[in-house]
Amino acid sequence: MTDPGVVRAAGCVLWRRARPGEGGEREQGGIEIALVHRPKWDDWSHPKGKLKPGETALRAAVREVREETGMACKPGAVLPTVRYTVGGRPKEVRYWAAEAVGGAFVPDDEVDRLLWLPPREARRLLTREQDRALVDALLAALHLD
To answer: Is 64 within a domain?
Structure first.
């Protein structure tokens, strides 16, 4: 049974193979991680969002990646669940590793910027510590740690 007071959300640590000549191909297995900037919170995070009624966490994670980044993705390994409090309510965000397989970013009011960064740079830019730990979990899941 789930606690009705908990805000349930899901997201992905979205990654792609570094493009030749962009520098990332030499670092940590040659991948880049997508980070989104949300102007409402002025933060950098992984794409994520609340589950809709009746929606599974995985379906929500893939939907949120599409909505926030414009990318289609191929979900992979389950990553750690992040728990924190927002507005006095507990929030639980389930995460997956997901490879970007196509698409294009279009800024909007919810997400105004998208950056693709090598893992080390992504870790530095992320606003929240628990999001940094997800970078390490992704690298371990991809056997790049």
So the answer is: yes
Question: Collapsing DSSP states into helix, strand and coil, what is residue 4?
Answer: coil
Residue 2 counted as domain residue: no
Cβ atoms of residues 71 and 103 within 8 Å: yes
Q: What is the mean pLDDT of residues 14-40?
A: 80
Q: What is the DSSP string of 110-139?
A: S--EEEEE-HHHHHHH-SSHHHHHHHHHHH
CA 77 to CA 134: how far, in whole Å?
12
Q: How many domains does the chain have?
A: 1
Whether 79 is covered by a domain: the verdict is yes
Report which DSSP code applies to 24. G
**pLDDT tens-digit readout, 84-133:** 998 899 999 999 999 999 999 999 999 999 999 999 999 999 999 999 99
Task: Please report, for the domain that includes residue 124, its CATH number.
Answer: 3.90.79.10
